[in-house]
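Q: How would the structure tokens look for this protein?
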Amino acid sequence: MQHSRRSFIKKGSLALAGATMFSPDLFAARPAGELLGVQLYSIREDMKTDPQGSLKKVAAMGYKNVEHANYIDRKFYGYSAKEFKKVLGDLGLRMPSGHTVMRTQHWNAATHDFTDEWKMTVEDAAIVGQQYVISPWLDEGLRSTYDDMRSYMDVFNKCGELCKRSGMKFGYHNHDFEFSTKLDGVTVFDIILQHTDPALVAQQLDIGNMYNAGAKALDIMKKYPGRFESMHVKDEIKSTGGGREPYESTILGVGVIPVKEVIDLGRKSGTKHFIVEQESYQDKTPMESIKEDLKIMKKWGY
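A: Here is the predicted structure in token form.
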């Protein structure tokens, strides 16, 4: 993700539509359990000012699934879990996954248990209808040494057990540091994948974030086949804003990532959730961007 997302966590369409109208991919049966959605961080400012109106626009585009990036004081975009589930349902939307950072303060090492705050996070996720509770960050203090990192993976597995009791699964979403940071010669990402139980901890692969660390999704997916139940579908171009990161996200299919090849491999190896995310927009609005992204995904048969 781009620097703005880090800060947030820490504190040709008509022609394309015409060309895809008769694409045979559109008539292919979707594999059982597969879904296409959008990460609402893509339209974060719209969701901040008018969440219900923004969701209405998302539904009108044709999206059926959304993923949240805003859970504060037991509320999703200002709504309780029950209220937000109704808002979504009235618009024909579902929210099978959401992003809430599991931080160090959510685990009590003395009692070997999660705090009430985190237990309520899981409870609310179940109420709203999530299948996955996904943490999109790993506090820096947890990845300072190999032993600390390895030990915290036991907490990941325990969170998987906690979520399982509510019929869900815990998940982790990568940025770029997982691939650029090594502890005792092992990347943070390898430590996560090698020491979490796939039956308890899902991996949501962000195929764009990793590019800023020089990692490539196809290589990672081949190294760990079948481990990525969910995917953030994203493309990247060289940064236009002069930011810290060399690449920023863009409309699918116009950047440097072989997105179609990546998602096709994901489909073949067990990925079920394909979540569109775009965080930089060049000359388009966020709403225009995710609308065009959806058209491209449909063209590709998703």
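Confidence is low (pLDDT under 50) at residues 10-27.

The chain has one domain: 3-9+31-299.

Upvote if useful.
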